[in-house]
């Protein structure tokens, strides 16, 4: 190995705790194998992704009683920072995570799961709403996902982010990442973090997360956009954003270029735009330059479950970004993490990464 190629341990030793900050909707993922009667009882399709309503009330407790139930720390942003921490391995607690949970049993499990993933999670705990959950009801190769945001919707800037002990952790970070979903919960928290990053010439990343964010949360989204140093999204989300902004193009490279040119406060860093396209090349733009990065080729029969591929991509990307690596290396790490996750069921990963 040449001297330029440092070992992983050598690389990460430059990393300090809390260097990567994430904030979002924490969900406890509850996975269990169920039968057709269970799906019918709750009116579920074998392959689906829905938000919970009244008729799903008892579902989560019933899942928890299954003999082989598995729990994971979930939610889009928490997944991404968890994967970043997994890629980094040492030291522990490079990733910080803030979000809101309930003072209940599921909340206790979530805290334990975040700790097992070596993420430094500091939750705002309140007793009005229960901890958010996402049930994965598995039948054969099919999975039906039912999400209940509950407490995740209750994050309050004044009650948590503003507290000195918490804000101190924000100040320790160099890279910030928030999924667009959180714009529906606490846009003022997002603005405070984004402005802090900007004032200290640190990196603030945002994910478009879903088409409905560009459609129905346009105002908070465009308020934060001038502070966004790195914008993530997939092709569908990019297309919806372009349509909503009146770009009048569906060419993904052109959309990336236009997003890159949107007003930006911190002129020291040109905005980077990264759009993934499933099995097709990832598009990234810095300045005038649009580059296509091929994903890791995989026999499509090897794919078990593409859920969480986007979150994993972001996690891999952030793990190198926080080590000040090149854009190319960040994207390689993103593709690596996504490639691992799509070959497994749910957003799980092996003990250690094998990425150089
Ligand atoms: N069919 C696939 N073949 C190979 N890689 C894939 C495939 N689907 C997803 N990936 C990997 O996951 C990344 C994100 O996938 P994408 O489908 O854009 O995210 P999401 O659907 O979660 O928003 C891709 O850039 C790629 O690395
Ligand atoms: C999986 O879902 C498909 C339809 O989405 C169905 O045809 C198939 O029978 C299901 N498999 C199992 C094991 O439930
Ligand atoms: C992109 O993400 C959206 C959710 O925001 C999802 O519905 C869609 O299938 C994804 N598109 C691709 C091509 O993976
Ligand atoms: C976030 O960005 C990734 C990568 O660009 C994308 O695939 C994904 O759909 C976006 N949304 C979420 C929730 O990860």
Automatic annotation (TrEMBL):
Give the Pfam families listed for this entry.
PfkB (PF00294)
- Enumerate the spans annotated as Carbohydrate kinase PfkB domain: 38-350
Q: Which GO terms describe its molecular function?
A: adenosine kinase activity; ATP binding
Identify the InterPro entries for this entry. Answer: Adenokinase, Carboh/pur_kinase_PfkB_CS, PfkB_dom, Ribokinase-like
What does it catalyze? adenosine + ATP = AMP + ADP + H(+)
Which Gene Ontology BP terms does the record give? adenosine salvage; AMP salvage; purine nucleobase metabolic process
Tell me which domain of life the UniProt entry assigns to the organism this sequence originates from.
Eukaryota
The record's top EC class is transferase
E.C. number: 2.7.1.20
**Main function:** ATP dependent phosphorylation of adenosine and other related nucleoside analogs to monophosphate derivatives.
Required co-factor(s) are:
Mg(2+)
Q: Give the location in the cell.
A: Nucleus
GO CC terms of this entry = cytosol; nucleus
| Origin species | Astyanax mexicanus
Q: Which UniProt keywords apply?
A: ATP-binding, Kinase, Magnesium, Nucleotide-binding, Nucleus, Purine salvage, Transferase
Q: How does it assemble?
A: Monomer.
Q: What is the lineage of its organism?
A: Eukaryota, Metazoa, Chordata, Craniata, Vertebrata
List the protein's name. Adenosine kinase
The active site lies at: 311 (proton acceptor)
Cofactor notes: Binds 3 Mg(2+) ions per subunit.
User: Record's family?
Assistant: Belongs to the carbohydrate kinase PfkB family.
Look up the record and name the pathway of this protein.
Answer: Purine metabolism; AMP biosynthesis via salvage pathway; AMP from adenosine: step 1/1
Q: Which Gene3D superfamilies match?
A: 3.30.1110.10, 3.40.1190.20
């Amino acid at each position: 190995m040449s001297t330029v190629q440092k070992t992983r341990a050598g690389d990460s030793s430059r990393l300090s705790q809390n260097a990567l900050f994430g904030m979002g909707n924490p969900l406890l993922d509850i996975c269990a194998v169920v039968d057709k009667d269970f799906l019918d009882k709750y009116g579920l399709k074998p392959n689906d992704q829905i938000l919970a309503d009244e008729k799903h009330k008892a579902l989560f407790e019933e899942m928890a009683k299954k003999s082989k139930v598995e729990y994971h720390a979930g939610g889009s942003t928490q997944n991404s920072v968890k994967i970043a921490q997994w890629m980094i391995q040492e030291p522990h607690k490079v990733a910080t995570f803030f979000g809101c949970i309930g003072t209940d049993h599921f909340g206790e499990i979530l805290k334990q799961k975040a700790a097992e993933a070596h993420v430094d999670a500091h939750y705002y705990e309140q007793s009005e709403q229960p901890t958010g959950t996402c049930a994965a009801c598995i039948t054969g190769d099919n999975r039906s996902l039912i999400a209940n945001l509950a407490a995740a919707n209750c994050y309050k800037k004044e009650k948590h982010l503003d507290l000195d002990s918490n804000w101190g952790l924000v100040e320790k970070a160099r890279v910030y990442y928030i999924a667009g979903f959180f714009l529906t919960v606490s846009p003022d928290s997002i603005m405070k973090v984004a402005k802090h990053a900007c004032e200290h010439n640190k990196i603030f990343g945002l994910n478009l997360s879903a088409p409905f964010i560009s459609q129905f949360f346009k105002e908070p989204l465009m308020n934060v956009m001038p502070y966004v140093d790195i914008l993530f999204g997939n092709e569908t989300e990019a297309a919806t954003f372009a349509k909503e902004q009146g770009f009048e193009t569906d060419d993904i490279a052109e959309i990336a270029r236009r997003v890159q040119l949107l007003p930006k406060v911190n002129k020291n860093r040109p905005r980077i735009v990264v759009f993934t396209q499933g099995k097709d090349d990832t598009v990234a733009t810095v300045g005038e330059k649009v580059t296509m990065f091929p994903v890791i080729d995989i026999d499509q029969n090897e794919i078990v479950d593409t859920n969480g591929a986007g979150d994993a991509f972001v996690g891999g990307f952030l793990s190198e970004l926080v080590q000040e690596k090149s854009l190319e290396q960040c994207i390689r790490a993103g593709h690596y993490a996504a490639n691992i996750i799509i070959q497994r069921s749910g957003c799980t990963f092996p003990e250690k990464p094998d990425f150089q």
